[in-house]
Design brief:
The complex is a heterodimer of chains A (423) and B (430). Chain A has 423 residues and is of the alpha+beta class. Helix content of chain A is 41%, strand content 21%. In chain A, the strands form three sheets. Chain A has a seven-stranded mixed β-sheet with strand order 1-2-3-9-4-8-7, sandwiched between helices. A five-stranded mixed β-sheet of chain A has the order 10-14-11-13-12, sandwiched between helices. Chain A has a two-stranded antiparallel ribbon with strand order 5-6. In chain B, helix 3 runs parallel beside helix 8. The chains are: A alpha+beta (423), B alpha+beta (430). At the A-B interface, helix 2, helix 4, helix 10 and helix 12 of A face helix 2, strand 5, helix 4 and helix 12 of B.
Chain lengths: 423, 430
């Protein structure tokens, strides 16, 4: 078993990559002087994986929200459930499902090996019955209803449904009360056997833990997977949005908006350089030091809830601006006008350097946090990148590459405005 | 030991709490000011926001943010919170450690200077806060206060606190009232700023390699010019509920929010506080708690149901998101679980799990500069500062008898339910 060390001189950090004989990739980033360790056992299976690959090469549809449902149910077992087992080690255990992955995790400051043993064991031991599936429908039903009242959440999913015609990023991560009613123990077992193949997974550990400790537990616990491994499809998405505008009424005090620009992508994933150049551009356009931010704040069109992000994953990428506003149309127009201006006048050297420096600092800040590091290790692994790629790109990126990027993105023809209005 | 803070009195009621360490990639400095919750709360609440938006050296908001970008994306934030019945104003700055700078300047030193300029050298026009800045901050503060409605979980908790603690200062909004904010002027804010520098209990928490003597010197120089008369801050502890109040409100929401407010029976913030923490955790803390195991897992009533102790006020709140028509069922079950804690129906393993989990969490605080600074900030009104490690030693000693005794001091004060309106229930049938 080869242990590959990846070192970054400037950060003075190293992580170790191991391809375990069971098929699982293991990534470990030890942090000197830390008492806590964080481990996440992740599968490349999220809400966008709505089709299951069969042995004959064909696909079958899975109910919306199955990845998230499976995440809830995996904690159960025929004997003690995973939470009861973690209670004996003192670790804080949890799990999450995103658009493109599911992660099972714990953080602890003691009993690391015992907790890792529980993590590797329960994730490899599915136990679903019709009765426990039905019980969970009540709990997840309440989780779904909770989000229906959260304006930040609704404004985003309404936007995604407006922007994306075919890509499953338009689906709610937890599904709907109707879709989860179609999930049976059998659905969960077939999704499990495909998506939880160890070759489709990664174990990422950061903090107070060593490669030796991790491998000692892994060697004992990991069992090679059989069966058909999941294959993720690149769903082609048309350049145009479904609609340029949508609105919903909710119990909120002020209107909220989200303006998204869908990128017309030819390949499923963005490179580290594309991601970084886009983030630099968004900060130059709407960051707190930008003329646009000042103008919007002074004209009372935004308040401190204003934010923006580069939202991207397998097969989708959008630049999104949002927040509270008294006039969603006016703020959308201001943002579009500023983008047009910048596309004509191009980014200047000073803004570029200042913003690059800011993002460089923000990338370094991440290296304090063991939770974030382990999750980032898992996420960069699934996209085929290394943990240090972005910081290296940030040191080398040029003004020309940022201006080239600006030509390819933020097209008005691919945009949509999502609005939440007070009831 | 590396984690033990260096504590120094800078001026009367001003304390520096510095943890010098190079194990982090960042340095973090937090400037916190505690004031009694009386008088014009709005004039005090607006201060951290108006102060962190500009200063004499950087009167323009965009220039200030340009400067922060040059300091490698130093993250500046401001906030207001309640600490028992103290109004806590804070301004925080996090920046990367000097060893990661691409050029030679000391980021830690520049960041500290900048933070002090924001607090001590505001951008004044004719001796008070300028009209444009005042109008902007008033609007932003009112919108911040009004948008509290958007987060229904937090909104329901605040409503329950306000109903339960009506007539107590804890029941007031940390931002003051909308009318108070609207009435603010450059002069009233200036007076509040002067009063804050003179009377607030102040603590500067700093974590990182830059947490050294030079920070103390810079602070001493700033406070040398100020005549300090620190305020007395006291919190009223109501040890027993007079009876049980019930209140229901309706809003067009899909999920109802239930909040149960209890009096913990504490006479002050130190009164058997460790036992109360463990007891609350067994009742509704982690996944081993009574509420998680029964209300969520056994009865499938909710996605979350948890209990939290605010030891600085001696109150416990249970929160859950449920179907509006299940309020009675959920309330009965929560109270039944509480009775079982009082009756001592607690497994030894559950006590062990709780102590393990609380101690694990406390040790984890040492691994985040922001969490560590917040840990010390939360002790701003206490005479003696304890480390997370000292707290774990106390937690480990809590016995089953103490947990049961702590539960038997608790009384139910208020049941608050935020329910969906009938129209929402109907549309859900579609």
């Amino acid at each position: 078993m080869k242990i590959n060390e990846i070192h970054n001189e400037k950060l003075n950090e190293s992580y170790f990559e191991i391809k375990h004989p069971s098929g699982l990739t293991i990534l470990v980033l030890p942090k000197a002087g830390y008492s806590s360790a964080y481990a996440v056992f992740s599968t490349k299976y999220g809400s966008i994986d709505t089709r299951l690959a069969l042995a004959d090469g064909s696909y079958t549809d899975i109910p919306e929200g199955t990845a998230h449902f499976l995440e809830h149910k995996l904690f159960e077992s025929e004997e003690l459930d995973a939470f009861e087992r973690f209670a004996k080690t003192g670790a804080n255990a949890n799990a999450y499902t995103s658009f493109d992955r599911t992660g099972y995790l714990f953080s602890c400051t003691g009993n690391f090996k015992e907790s890792l043993e529980i993590l590797l064991d329960f994730v490899q031991k599915p136990y679903f019955t019709q009765e426990t599936v039905e019980k969970e429908q009540g709990i997840i039903g309440q989780e779904i209803r909770m989000y229906k009242d959260v304006a930040d959440w609704e404004v985003l999913f309404n936007l995604l449904r407006s922007l994306y015609q075919t890509h499953p990023v338009r689906i709610d991560i937890a599904g709907t009360e109707e879709s989860i009613a179609q999930i049976s123990a059998e659905t969960l077992y077939s999704c499990y056997s495909s998506f939880y193949n160890l070759n489709n997974m990664v174990l990422a550990v950061s903090g107070n833990a060593s490669v030796e400790e991790v491998l000692e537990v892994a060697d004992r616990l990991l069992k090679p997977s059989k069966g058909v491994m999941a294959k993720r499809e690149f769903v082609k998405e048309p350049a145009e949005p479904v609609t340029g505008y949508c609105e919903e009424k909710l119990s909120v005090n002020a209107p909220q908006f989200m303006l998204g620009f869908k990128e017309n992508i030819k390949t499923p994933e963005r490179t580290a350089e594309e991601r970084l150049c886009t983030r630099i551009l968004l900060d130059i356009i709407a960051g707190k030091a930008s003329p646009l931010y000042k103008k919007l704040l002074e004209s009372e069109l935004i308040n401190t809830t204003f934010s923006f992000e580069y939202f991207e994953g397998y097969g989708y990428a959008s630049s999104i601006f949002g927040g509270e506003t008294k006039d969603p149309q006016a703020v959308a127009k201001e943002i579009k006008d500023e983008i047009k201006r910048l596309k004509t006048e191009k980014v200047d050297k000073q803004s570029f350097e200042r913003t690059r420096r800011k993002l460089y600092g923000r990338l370094i800040m991440m290296y304090n946090d063991v939770d974030e590091l382990a999750n980032e290790l898992a996420s960069t692994f699934f996209t085929g990148n290394g943990l240090f790629d972005e910081i290296e790109v940030c040191k080398a990126v040029t003004l020309d590459s940022v201006n080239d990027r600006l030509k390819d993105i933020l097209e008005e023809s691919g945009s949509a405005l999502s609005v939440i209005l007070p009831v | 030991m590396e984690n033990t803070p260096f504590i120094k009195t800078i001026a009367p009621g001003v304390r520096l709490c510095a943890v010098q360490t190079d194990r982090f990639k960042t340095g973090c400095i937090s400037f916190s000011m505690a004031l009694p919750m009386d008088g014009n709360l709005a004039a005090k609440a607006i201060l951290p926001y108006i102060l962190h938006r500009s200063c004499k050296k950087y009167p323009d908001f965009s220039f200030l943010n340009g400067r922060l970008a040059e300091l490698y994306g130093a993250a500046l934030s401001a906030g207001v919170s309640k600490l028992g019945e103290a109004q806590l104003l804070s301004i925080n700055l996090t920046s990367i450690d000097d060893r990661f700078a691409l050029t030679g300047e000391s980021i830690a030193q520049s960041s500290t200077e900048l933070l002090l300029e924001l607090i001590f050298d505001p951008d004044l026009v004719d001796g008070c806060f300028g009209e444009a800045a005042v109008q902007r901050e008033k609007r932003l503060l009112i919108e911040k206060m009004e948008s509290e409605l958007n987060d229904k979980k937090a909104y329901a908790l605040r409503r329950c606190e306000a109903i339960m603690c009506k007539g107590e200062r804890y029941g007031l909004s940390k931002y003051g009232t909308k009318e108070e904010i609207e009435a603010l002027t450059g002069e009233t804010i200036f007076d509040a700023w002067q009063n804050m520098l003179k009377t607030a209990i102040i603590q500067i928490d700093i974590v990182g390699s830059g947490a050294n003597e030079s920070v103390a010197d810079a602070l001493i120089a700033r406070f040398a010019k100020i005549e300090r008369i620190p305020a007395e801050i006291q919190t009223l502890f109501v040890t027993m509920a007079a009876g049980t109040r019930r209140e229901e409100e309706k809003l067009p929401v899909k999920q109802g929010k239930l909040v149960l407010g209890f009096r913990a029976g504490m006479e002050d913030a130190l009164d058997e506080v460790t036992a109360a923490k463990v007891m609350t955790d067994i009742f509704g803390g982690g996944t081993y708690s009574k509420l998680f195991k029964n209300v969520r897992e056994k009865m499938s009533l909710c996605y979350y149901c948890s209990a939290r102790l605010n030891h600085l006020k001696g109150v416990i709140f249970v929160q859950s998101g449920i179907e509006s028509d299940k309020a009675q069922l959920a309330t009965d079950e929560i109270l039944r679980q509480f009775e079982s804690v009082k009756a001592g129906e607690i497994e030894d393993d559950d006590l062990k799990s709780s102590i393990l989990s609380l101690c694990d969490h406390l040790r984890g605080i040492e691994d985040s500069p922001e969490d560590l600074a917040m840990w010390y900030t939360s002790q701003i009104i206490k005479p003696d500062i304890t480390t997370p490690e000292q707290e774990t030693e106390k937690i480990k000693l809590v016995t089953m008898e103490q947990v049961i005794a702590a539960a038997n001091r608790v009384t139910l004060d208020t049941i608050y339910m935020l329910s969906g309106t009938a129209e929402e229930a109907e549309t859900d049938e579609n």
